[in-house]
Amino acid sequence: MDDALNAWTSLHTLPNSAIRILLLAESKCKIFGSVKKNTLKYLYEKHSRENKNFKDFLNLLFESKLVAWESRNKELIRLTFSGYDLLALRSINKKFNITSFGSNIARGKESDLYVAECSSVGSCVIKFYRIGRTSFRDVKRKRSFSKLSSSWLIHSTKAATSEARAYELLKNSEVNVPKFFWRNRHALLLEYIEGKRLSSLEEPELNAELFYQIILQVKHMLKTKFVHVDLNPFNILVSSDRKKVYIIDFPQWVPLTHPNSLFYLSRDLNNVASFFEQKGIRLDREKVINETLNLAKQLIESE
Ligand SMILES: Nc1ncnc2c1ncn2[C@@H]1O[C@H](COP(=O)(O)OP(=O)(O)O)[C@@H](O)[C@H]1O
Ligand SMILES: [Mg+2]
User: Fold this and answer.
1) Average pLDDT over residues 140-145
2) Total structural domains within the chain
3) Which of 107, 109, 112, 113 to mutate to test the pocket of ligand 1 (most atoms within 8 A of CB)?
4) Do residues 127 and 188 make contact, with C-beta atoms less than 8 angstroms apart?
5) What is the pLDDT of residue 135?
6) Ligand 2 mean position to 46 CA, how many Å?
7) How does residue 191 score in pLDDT terms, banded at 50, 70 and 90?
8) Does the annotation mark 230 as catalytic?
9) Distances (CA, A) of 11 to 15, 24, 68, 136, 240
10) Of 2, 112, 138, 230, catalytic
11) Are 140 and 222 in the same domain?
12) Looking at residue 34, which CATH number applies to its domain?
């Protein structure tokens, strides 16, 4: 079973005491990357009213793949992606009441996305960051243990925080983005957009009109003093009726005042334009890109 589905199942079966141990492990792993088994036992017995059965509850966490050994001598424990997912899902569930959690809609190099239903916000997407997953797999393959294996927790939370910040900044702008409901740890709760990725469209749905709509979105973003930095046909969604484009996936955004913002902007615009042109759609590429870059320059100068 994959990490988040395993977390969702475990959330409903784990006793509270096991979750308490997981929370204690998290608090140490966030700072040190891992925690000594004896420290965890000490913390659990110190803070817990029912301070028995540490060993049994810890075993449950291991069996459910929510924690793993960080060191060969079985002294240091770390959280797994699944363990961290469980804690994020638990918090999201408390606040939004998840009524169903299911299909994986995307599995990227550094994130996993699932569709969910929440009683307070309806259809939504939960995006879990997995920064370092690739290098972690590498580590596992080589059967060695590395510091990288635990720092993912910090980097994944940072990426989620950065994306959440972007959504906050864009909230009152004219840019079409999914509604952002909440971030917890390395997970974002977003509105589910019914539609398709730009990358999967072909003519006649793919046309110059759509390109100009995307450029308009980029201009709105510039007015919010904002450059996407990873704009490409996979990070643009087109609504089912093909009338609205949405921009997604913002962890790398930079403010317009960033020293490389014009370079990033030009790269973003060229990525999108090249995609349309490769599909045989004729565009006023030079003109549109120069116009957009000039707008950005004006906005930078007026800072
Ligand atoms: N809010 C959403 N509604 C519907 N589908 C989405 C949503 N957000 C992302 N997706 C789908 O998941 C894919 C990956 O999401 P994205 O945020 O781009 O993460 P990644 O970092 O893995 O690229 C997107 O290309 C899109 O197909
Ligand atoms: Mg993406």
Assistant:
1) 41
2) 2
3) 113
4) yes
5) 56
6) 44
7) very high
8) yes
9) 9, 16, 17, 24, 34
10) 230
11) no
12) 1.10.10.10
